[in-house]
From TrEMBL:
Protein name: ATP-grasp domain-containing protein
Organism: marine sediment metagenome
Length: 70
């Protein structure tokens, strides 16, 4: 949802961050997002070995670049 994405970007900007992870709840009845928490250093830890690669590919995709393994 664009309104959720907008709320997350505004929360990150309000804290003067370049990036972060934002926890948001969306209330369907009101069609309104609620920012719960902003993590300035989001964890990339996960139970799967491919998580970091998924994040990297997503970031590169947003930048219009291609992922390469080195």
């Amino acid at each position: 949802l664009d309104v959720v994405r907008y709320a997350a970007k505004q929360a990150i900007a309000a804290l003067g961050l370049d990036f972060g992870a934002v926890d948001v709840m969306y209330k369907i009845k009101d069609k309104r997002p609620y920012v719960l928490e902003v993590n300035s250093t989001p964890s990339l830890a996960d139970d799967t070995a491919d998580t970091c690669e998924v994040y990297a590919k997503r970031i590169l995709s947003m930048l219009g670049a291609k992922a390469t393994k080195e």
